[in-house]
Amino acid sequence: MLNSTIQSIEIFKLFLPLKEPFVISLGPINEVQNVVIRIRTADGCTGYGECSPYLTINGESIDTCFAVAQYLARGLHGHDALDIAGCVALMNRIIYGNSSIKSAFDMALHDVAAQHAGVPLYAYLGGHADKVLTTDMTVSLGPPGKMQADAIRFQQQGFPAIKVKLGETLEADVARIRAIREGIGPDHPLRIDANQGWHTADAAIAMLQALAPYRIDHCEEPISRHLYMDMGRVSAASPIPIMADESCGDEHDAARLIQLRACPQFNVKLGKASGLHKAQKIVELGAAAGMTLQVGGFMESRLGMTAAAHLALTNDAIHHCDFDTPLMYAEDPVVGGIQYLSQGVIDVPSTPGLGAVIDEQYLRHAEKRVFD
């Protein structure tokens, strides 16, 4: 019998430049600041995981993740890597919250487990490569003219849908969408994300009604995540379907929103859910409730987005993918992983496991901790 005991865990800081700052209503992102986890088992198997912490969303930074990862590594060392549920439970006993760094460990464990099973990660998760995944492309928050130019460029590059960051005043955000529609025409699929920027239910309802003429597919997180009790009122009054993002972190949040009939759509992210183990629970709940689901991410590289793509192949309720942030990188640190084809099509690796690793040259000189 193969020995799947965790023999060593390595923790790396990964800093990478972006082509240009990525701006949302919660603030600008000027560079990638991620943490990479590498788990080796006694039989020589190696699994990779990655997280992209967000101070304003999951309350984590590269430094908090690096510190907490050391607690988690000490706890997990010597455990069976194939006992993912047990490892997840152990991480939760070690420390509350910290969903971002836990997702990196969870991802690496799933990589190991799928390799042991000799199947691609999507198959290990119960999925099938029987549907075509496509990603949208996101227009960063900025002046209307710049946003219009970016949207036109993404349309010309063949992306099947354009996502637009909003979250400021009614006048400013309507002007942005008006300019974009004038640039890309009335028919190209358009989605919006306020990142909680409209704050209150009344402000959000006014904004969503004002944006109705511009044919918006859906709107992510229009109000403060703390006002989830008001989300149902926003959904009922909105001509645009509402998708919960920041307010839907794990399966407990998902169950609450379903019970409240708060919204018809969820955006599932590994960094919010603490990884694939819990993200699958959200997907199952949403699918059972007849919801439309999206799988997205933060600023993960193609490694983290590859894990998200494997998840997207597990359930027909997952209609949308938001896997564009690696295209914003000035450098690509990943070997293998998803490939971006024409028309926004995502090609998911079919090799056993995750099918992606971080190029050793990016880890060789990185700040790291090793537990073996």
UniProtKB/TrEMBL annotation:
<dbReference type="GO" id="GO:0006518">
    <property type="term" value="P:peptide metabolic process"/>
</dbReference>
<feature type="binding site">
    <location>
        <position position="245"/>
    </location>
    <ligand>
        <name>Mg(2+)</name>
    </ligand>
</feature>
<dbReference type="InterPro" id="IPR036849">
    <property type="entry name" value="Enolase-like_C_sf"/>
</dbReference>
<dbReference type="Pfam" id="PF13378">
    <property type="entry name" value="MR_MLE_C"/>
</dbReference>
<keyword id="KW-0479">Metal-binding</keyword>
<feature type="binding site">
    <location>
        <position position="193"/>
    </location>
    <ligand>
        <name>Mg(2+)</name>
    </ligand>
</feature>
<protein>
    <recommendedName>
        <fullName>Dipeptide epimerase</fullName>
        <ecNumber>5.1.1.-</ecNumber>
    </recommendedName>
</protein>
<keyword id="KW-0460">Magnesium</keyword>
<feature type="active site" description="Proton acceptor; specific for (S)-substrate epimerization">
    <location>
        <position position="269"/>
    </location>
</feature>
<feature type="domain" description="Mandelate racemase/muconate lactonizing enzyme C-terminal">
    <location>
        <begin position="144"/>
        <end position="241"/>
    </location>
</feature>
<dbReference type="InterPro" id="IPR034603">
    <property type="entry name" value="Dipeptide_epimerase"/>
</dbReference>
<dbReference type="InterPro" id="IPR029017">
    <property type="entry name" value="Enolase-like_N"/>
</dbReference>
<dbReference type="Pfam" id="PF02746">
    <property type="entry name" value="MR_MLE_N"/>
</dbReference>
<feature type="binding site">
    <location>
        <position position="220"/>
    </location>
    <ligand>
        <name>Mg(2+)</name>
    </ligand>
</feature>
<dbReference type="GO" id="GO:0000287">
    <property type="term" value="F:magnesium ion binding"/>
</dbReference>
<dbReference type="InterPro" id="IPR013341">
    <property type="entry name" value="Mandelate_racemase_N_dom"/>
</dbReference>
<feature type="active site" description="Proton acceptor; specific for (R)-substrate epimerization">
    <location>
        <position position="165"/>
    </location>
</feature>
<keyword id="KW-0413">Isomerase</keyword>
<comment type="similarity">
    <text>Belongs to the mandelate racemase/muconate lactonizing enzyme family.</text>
</comment>
<dbReference type="InterPro" id="IPR029065">
    <property type="entry name" value="Enolase_C-like"/>
</dbReference>
<dbReference type="InterPro" id="IPR013342">
    <property type="entry name" value="Mandelate_racemase_C"/>
</dbReference>
<dbReference type="GO" id="GO:0016855">
    <property type="term" value="F:racemase and epimerase activity, acting on amino acids and derivatives"/>
</dbReference>
